[in-house]
Amino acid sequence: MIDLYYWTTPNGHKVTLYLEETGLEYNIIPINIGKGEQFQPEFLAIAPNNRIPAMVDHAPAGGGAAVSLFESGAMLLYLAEKTGRFIPADLRGRAEVLQWLFWQVGGLGPMAGQNHHFRNYAPEKIAYAVDRYVNETHRLYGVLNHRLADRPYVAGDDYTIADMASYPWILPDAQGQSLDEFPHLARWHAEIKARPATTRAYALVQRINPGAGGVRTEEERKILFGQRAPTGKS
Fold first, then answer.
1. pLDDT digits over 49-65, tens only?
2. CB 154 within 8 A of CB 148
3. Higher model confidence: residue 211 or residue 99?
4. Closest CA to 141 of 189, 106, 193
5. Distance from C-alpha of 111 to C-alpha of 171, rounded to nearest angstrom
6. What average pLDDT does this structure show over 210-225?
7. CA 182, CA 201: separation in Å to the nearest integer?
8. Residue 56's closest CA among 79, 33, 73, 35?
């Protein structure tokens, strides 16, 4: 059994996509980030960066003590290695998947996240910041579109964790983009959206966080965007 500490964000969806594709048994433990539940000591023991998702695998390969992980990219790689699914076994195929997985966690996710913040959540709309991140998101959409021009999936012929990592971060309406400009990306996005496992993963939103839709109160804004490191040696 896997305990998944989850909230309804793009990074949370990455892991539910994988779990639903493989049928691994898992238990969701909701972490309501708008209420500050990510700062609870029990969660911080697993996820010291106080971000979701995190997970505990109580039945790791080879047995032994449970394995806890934070960081969605690390979790996808761990699960792929645990099951031997959605990552190639050969050296070159694995390298293709890993470089695009790291591209997402180092580029698409952070840049699109800043896009969301300055475009949708910031109380003051700073034109330079909005333009900076909308343009960079546009550039990254173009990178994916070019990559998908001659292959069905990001790493080649097969659906992998590289696709699962990027798919939840393609949110054109929220990011000031149009998929009409990116036909290969649009084709890929539609195909993944139609997968039964994707439907099941996203159905969790209404069960876990009905009416999900960004920052709704000033208190949520303070919790999500006002964090500083604790002082002292703690």
1. 999 999 999 999 999 99
2. yes
3. 99
4. 189
5. 12
6. 79
7. 25
8. 79
Q: Measure the CA–CA gap between 131 and 172, rounded to whole angstroms.
A: 15
Q: How far apart are CA 190 and CA 185, in angstroms?
A: 9
DSSP codes of every residue in 107-160? IIHHHHHHHHIIIII-SS--HHHHHHHHHHHHHHHHHHHHHGGGSSBTTBSS--
Q: Which two tokens stand for residue 210?
A: 């009905």
Mean pLDDT within 171-182: 98
Percent of the chain with pLDDT over 70: 97
3-state secondary structure of 28: strand
Q: What share of the chain is helix, strand, coil (3-state, %, to 5)?
A: 60, 10, 30
pLDDT digits (tens, 9 = 90+) for 183-201: 999 999 999 999 999 999 9
The domains of the chain, with CATH numbers, are 2-85+197-218 (3.40.30.10), 91-195 (1.20.1050.10)
* Cα Dmax for the chain: 54
Query: Token pair for residue 190?
Result: 């539609």
Q: Tell me the residue ranges of DSSP E strands in the chain.
A: 2-6, 26-30, 54-57, 67-70
